[in-house]
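Example 3.
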Amino acid sequence: MTQRLRIATWNINSLRLRLPLLPRLIGALDPDVICLQETKVPDELFPVDAPAELGFPHVAYAGMKGYNGVAILSRIPLQRQTTAPDWCAKGDSRHVSVLLDMKSGPVELHDFYVPAGGDIPDREENPKYGHKLDFVGEATSWFAGRKDLARTVLVGDLNIAPLEHDVWNHKQLLDVVSHTPPETSGLLAWQNTRFHDAVRHFVPEDQKLYTWWSYRNRDWRASNRGRRLDHVWVTPDLKDGLASHTILKDARDWPQTSDHVPVCVELEV
DNA sequence: ATGGTGGGCTCCCCA
């Protein structure tokens, strides 16, 4: 007896501004759970009535003023978890996790917004780059220490394109923050704490695959200088249940949209 | 070619 679990993740780049786009996402993907990043809304200003009106009455969120912020909107009942540390001791609203009440038992779900890391790929010159690498390192250590980790999904804007064909030009981007060797090796080390890349499960590694296109392009589709920054990972016990995936490229043309597009994975659990 | 665009929020940060 399995149950469908369809999880969408989207860097929405301001929840309040783009709330009108969520019905489009729901119409296109019919998700059971929506994980958002860069909500940019403090908890006291979170639009508390909106999720239930969209059919997602169960929520968990962590926000702050102006920057960052994550939220999980769910059709499935959930319990918030408070076991993870305050990453890099910054209290900067980059992670929320829950247990989803599936019929077969709980599924653990983590929603991350990894620091973007600034422009200069050097720890000394650019503390934001160091913060990013430290964040990934802390997350790696924490998940490596979770010896009981099972039935777990990790999603989010991880701000790193780990594979050669996760960027439009591998060689040209090797010194561009998001695709530098310390970042890509760090992200794969995190993934190797037990996770399986649920999107590359469906798309061979030699095929180009992007989830983000800069605002700073006249025609994002024509130039197609994308990067795969948004990810869905699952623990091995969920791998056999992987049913399908969608990268909702159409969303990049929605009115007043985000520079990221939604990524969705369906599982049977 | 070192720009370009966009969101939040305040006289500039961040992506």
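Residues 11, 13-14, 17, 38, 40, 65-68, 116, 118, 128, 159, 214-218, 256, 258-259 of chain A lie near DNA strand B (CB under 10 Å from a C1'). Chain A has a mean pLDDT of 97.
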